[in-house]
Amino acid sequence: MPENKGLEGVVVADSKISSIIGSQLTYGGYEIDDLAENALFEEVVYLLWNDQLPNQQELDAFTDELFNLMTLDDNIYKHFELYPVDKVHPMSAIRTGLSLTAHYDENAEDSSVEASKNKAVRILAQMPALVAAFARIREGKEVVKPKEGLTYAANFLYMLNGEEPTDTEVEAMNKVLVLQADHELNASTFTARVCVGTESDVYSGVTAAIGALKGPLHGGANEQVMEMLKEIGSLDNVEGYLQKKFDNKEKIMGIGHRVYKDGDPRAKYLKDMSMKLTDENGYSELFEISTKIADIVKEEKGLLPNVDFYSATVYHSLGIESDLFTPIFAMSRASGWTAHILEQYADNRLIRPRAEYVGATDRKYEPIENRS
Ligand SMILES: CC(=O)SCCNC(=O)CCNC(=O)[C@H](O)C(C)(C)COP(=O)(O)OP(=O)(O)OC[C@H]1O[C@@H](n2cnc3c(N)ncnc32)[C@H](O)[C@@H]1OP(=O)(O)O
Ligand SMILES: O=C([O-])CC(=O)C(=O)O
Hints:
It is a single chain. The protein is mostly helical. It has helices at 32-38, 41-50, 56-68, 74-79, 90-101, 113-137, 152-161, 167-180, 187-196, 202-213, 221-232, 238-247, 267-280, 284-301, 307-317, 325-346, and strands at 18-21, 24-27, 30-31. It folds into two domains: 16-217 and 322-346, Orthogonal Bundle (Citrate Synthase, domain 1); 221-317, CATH 1.10.230.10. Helices cover 55% and strands 3% of the residues. The protein binds acetyl coenzyme *A (ACO) and oxaloacetate ion (OAA). Residues 183, 186, 257-259, 306-307 line the site of oxaloacetate ion.
């Protein structure tokens, strides 16, 4: 087995976008705490793409640009009606939908820096529209187009629910988007960089990244956390549920991290939000079940909650279906993916590691009639 199975600890790129040192996370040199408490998601995206926060004029121009690209081509809305939407996971729908948006971008194959930056803006603007449209169409509801003057977080909730969200909802959604925007070389970002390292286009990189985020060991864990909470059902069942998982050597979703061994700095914000929102919306028991799970897993395994753990109850309290949790993560992470894609283009070298061959050797071709 290679020394660094799963590329653990292997450094494969220089990056100015985000950094993890111990339990400290920074975006472009700003502490995640500072940004989570103060920043608008749009400011964070601008920071990830430009290595500096925008001034008011730059933010206004960027917000307008995003709004102007937030409505999808009618054919994209229509394509969601072409297949049995009730049987399709939203992450698969978004993966296909995002890939489809490329066909309505006349500069899709233009690989200039300017065109690649424009694609990043289009993708970020279109992700919330894709998630919200799919969610409504599968319920037989009319698509809701974005509303001018709303922030990115507010517009997503508006397009999803068809009514303007409250300040509390917008604040929570904005914070979740900020917290999930980037995370160094996580699996989906690495996937995006590998893809565009072949000089492939931005849409291909983001589509590949969506596929990687979908897995339950990565972004897909937030949906699984909600399924676990539902399965547990009440506080009394937590010990029994966990014991069975431990006995079967199964993982507890939303817990553990490849890099953070002393805790994920994003989790405390999500825990605070979860406590507040579950209390306000009548889901306090889900919060209590969550903290009991976290305490027992810490005690038994020394493992701590990651970003996905408490985000599940935050989304649930906002009335969001559990299979939309990972698509929302994708919406936010599209900012980090595209930042990394642009950074990869700027100083590219094909990413191509090696494998240790451990298969059979010295075989000779046998005609098919001679094979047993
Ligand atoms: C946004 C994100 O992607 S955050 C991560 C989201 N993913 C999850 O929440 C899924 C659950 N967690 C996990 O699967 C893991 O903790 C990962 C994949 C996130 C990171 O794992 P790694 O550092 O690669 O650890 P790895 O999977 O090799 O596990 C090491 C040991 O810890 C155990 N372990 C790790 N996480 C967990 C967990 N959540 N529950 C129980 N045991 C765990 C493993 O079973 C293994 O035990 P062993 O050595 O006795 O076989
Ligand atoms: O960094 C990782 O491996 C996973 C993670 O927390 C993220 O992508 O936010």
